[in-house]
């Protein structure tokens, strides 16, 4: 009888201890994390859209800071402007004629024009981001790296080009890009008169505008991907809430 009573007592004590541990674990969870549950917070579509736009705004701010300084384009192989594709044969001819210095100066100044124009890019891109129409933020969020940037690029490039063009034109004038371009072109086109070849005269305003915008988008995409993959880059509550749900 004593043995039976002792066994019952041991079992009862074990149950009490187990229940006490459960209570302590629950309390600890509430103190340390608000809840012991690992369920991610629910999101509304409006919150997702706000998070995506904030990521893009942060991305363009960082991108302008990177690109608008001296050598921001020139020393960055991801966005560096090279000799215009339409005039690549001009470059080769110029090098054949020993115009290496003029070619180098032109390519350097080409990038200086993009760097100068980028100083004025922030408000234009900010307006485009804020005015971006998004119906399904979840689709962009789940699409993965660079999705928000691509969406912005597809929807605003024409608008950005129109707004950015006069700024580029002014930048080209400020850094005197055509002073390095004109001698190369004159020599090349003069030779074409003799050989009967086709003259070349690409639109530098258009070229720099397109390349500068493309370069900025490339940098914005890198910044977006940082936010998607690195929790440290999520510097606001909405970024934490929205991108914390992304499974990498």
Main attributes of the structure:
single chain; 248 residues; mainly alpha; 73% helix; disordered N terminus
Annotate the secondary structure layout.
Blueprint: H1 2-33, H2 45-67, H3 88-96, H4 100-118, H5 121-130, H6 137-143, H7 147-174, H8 177-195, H9 204-229, H10 237-243
Helix pairs in contact: 2-5, 2-6, 2-9, 2-10, 3-8, 4-7, 4-8, 4-9, 5-7, 7-9
If you had to describe this structure to a student in words, what would you say it looks like?
There is one protein chain. The chain has 248 residues and is mainly alpha-helical. It folds into two domains: 39 residues; 200 residues, no CATH class. Helices cover 73% and strands 0% of the residues. The longest helix is centred in the first third of the chain and has 32 residues. The chain starts with a helix and ends in a 5-residue tail after the last helix. The N terminus is likely disordered.
